[in-house]
Every structure is written in structure tokens, then in C-alpha cells.
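Entry 14. Structure prediction run on the chain below.
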Amino acid sequence: MYSKKLSASSNAGQGNVPQETDLDSAGERVAPPGESGSEGIASAPPSNTAPHNSNFTFQPLRWGLDSLYLSYPGRLSDAREYELKSLKKLAQGPSHEASSAQLEVHGHVFEVKDKSSGLFAYTLVDGSYMIRLSAGKSKKLPMAYVQISSRLLSHKVPMEIEAELREILRALGDVYAPKVSRVDVYLDFASDADMESWRRESWVTKAQNIAQYAEDSDFTGWTIGAGSTLSARLYQKVIESKKSGKEYIHDLWRQVGWDSVLPVWRMEFQFKREVLEQLQLDSLPSVLENLAGLWGYATDKWLRLCIANADDKTRSRWPVHPLWLAVSSIDWASAGGPLLRTYDAARVPSLDWLGSRCAALVASIASLANMHDFDAAWTEAKRHTYDAMATRNSISGISVEQYFAEKVQANSRDFNLRLNPKPKEKPVYQPERSEYERQSRG
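Output returned:
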């Protein structure tokens, strides 16, 4: 992959944007081999040619699935439901009990939440999956509704993920092949194009609402059709990844030639179940086989970025922006970029981040105590930490050591690191029998 100055007729790497030979005599783009879709979503390209006076850098970096939600028909087993009820009750208790609200399944240490959402009774979470489970008696809901993490989708292909996920769910009950409830399809590209240089009317779309966003002096992107069954976002991915803690993606961009300087933008379309059913796509294999069709439908039938023409009131005739020609022409038959070599299902903050926070706290205490020696400041910080724990637990009678151990266990649960010991069951109170009762009952 590489970057190049792009106009309406130039190429930008691996045949991913139209060349002159990709346009027919009428200005229509000719679909490349392998770009096809199921009935109703043939990946038709933009119908207007773009002007040749717009030059900018366009470097495609990665494309694929960013979010995937699957619904599994089936039934939770009675034994698992009894276990989950007990764990959910633990999660609703005091912290020393809540830290044991965990369930290990096929190497995943899930946190069992104290509450669930919607009509689902139970929620399990780790760094790979958020699994919502319906009660065993439920007949209308699927057994499981699962959100797959974007990081896991950057490590494995979707069918491998689904195979692992189904094994996890089979350990909880009887499940069948899933349906896709939502899929987010994306393209990451580096570009120096001015993303706020056009007005809202340049987005020719079936959506009703269009919004643009900025942080301080930085323009951060557009949203089109937010909240509807099909929506889109074009946003500054470098800024977003730093806020969300997904900077691991920067190394994947560098592997395909990103210079760490050029802004990276993400074009993302969110398809919910209603629109997938309308497009006759229901199963995961059918969605994966028709990603080119979904992208073509979204970037041509549903949304286009055009060059506004004040002299032509018919917006459908406005010429397509050259950036949109590049975005819409990604070759979905090719690999969408490298995958993460390693992956951990734990939700653990980096040691660098923790160390930075710790340094900031020690420096704050050192400033208050007018200290400049690190070792002395560290000792002072340790003393104040111990005093704070002792004060917090003076009424409850819990020792500092016990309180600290409970905090460690709570973090282990939140981070999905290891199973904590289960709390000891309280003995059932049995009043001592009187001498008469002992004699009368032998």
C-alpha cells in the first residue's frame, strides 16, 4: 500500500481506486472483478464523474469489520441459570463478595454484572465479548446476544471468532447458528484532504440528519443518519483512538506505510438487523460474502459526497467528489490489512498508563510536602495511602491489609485476570436445644 496525489482519474494503491481505464465512455465506473453482492445490494459505483481539479493524498490503510453483534437462538441450561443467579446476587452484594462474581468458560474469566440490560437476565463481560443471556424460561428472546470487541476483530477473522464464541455458549446451554444483529464496516485511510471544506448539502443521502463535530480547533468529523437502521461516520481516527485507548491500531497502520504524520480518517457504516434483512443478509457467512455489496450500497445508493452546484437544483446530478470515488472503490476482495499478532482477553490498563498516574500522584504529594527527592516523596505517598485506608475502614473494623486485598480482588475481577476465591457460606443459625428437647428427642 502506498499514498499518492489523487484526482478523479488517478490510482491510490493496489487498484483500490478507479484508474482511467476503470471509467467507461459515459463516465460510469466499471466494477472490478470480485466486487459483487447478493440481490438488492449490487455494488454499483457513483454515477457521476468527478472534476479533475482536486488533488490530495489518499492512502488506504485498513478495512473490515469494526463492530459485530450476533444473536444466538437456543436455551440456557437449568444448571447454568442457577449458577448465574447466584453469581449475579454476589455481584449485587458488598465489594468483598462482588469480587467473586466471576465465571470461567474455556479460558475466559468473565465478570458477571450485577445488572443486565433490556429483557436479558444476565450479562458476562471480558475483553473479547459482552454476552447477554436470557432466562431459561424465555421463549421470545434469543439465548444470547453478543457484542464482539473491536480489538478481537483486529486479531482474528470473524469466522474464527464465531467458532470460539459458539463453543463458549455451548458450555452455557443449547445454541444454534447465529443471526447478525448489527455490523459496522469501516475503511481507515490517511489523507490531507480538508474534511470540513464542504457544506452539509454536499452529502447526498437518504438520511434525515447530518451533523459535524470539532474539538477545540480540530475538526473531528461528520455523522449521517445517527440512530437510524443505517448510519455513517467520517471521523478523525487518530484523535479518537487516543481517547478510547485503541492506539494499538497505529502500529498496524505503520506496517502498511503510514508515516505517523498524515491524518488518518475512518469512514464507517453501521448496518442494523432491519436493513440487513431488507438486503436479504441474515447469517454471518452471507454478510461476509457480501461486504463489497454492502459497501457499494452504502457509498452509492444511500450516501454520496458530491461537489455542490448552485446552478443545478437536482442534487442527484451533482458530480461525485474525488475523495468519494476513492473511498467507494476499495477492493473488498483483497486483504484488509495486517492483524494483531498477539491478543489478551483481559481488560487491563497498560503499565505505562498506570505508572504515569502513579507518578502524577506522587508528584502531587511531593509538591504539597515541598519535597524534591523521589524516594522521600514515595515514602510520604505510601504513608498517606496507608492513613487513608485506615481512616476509611475505622468504623467497619476491617484491617488495612484486608481492605487492600479486597481492592486487589476487585481489580482482578474488573480486569478479567484470574478467579477470586468464593466467599465462605455463612453457617445457618441453629439455636441450642433445651435439655427437655434433647431428652424428648433422644
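The chain is about 30% helix and 20% strand.
Filed with the rest of this week's runs.
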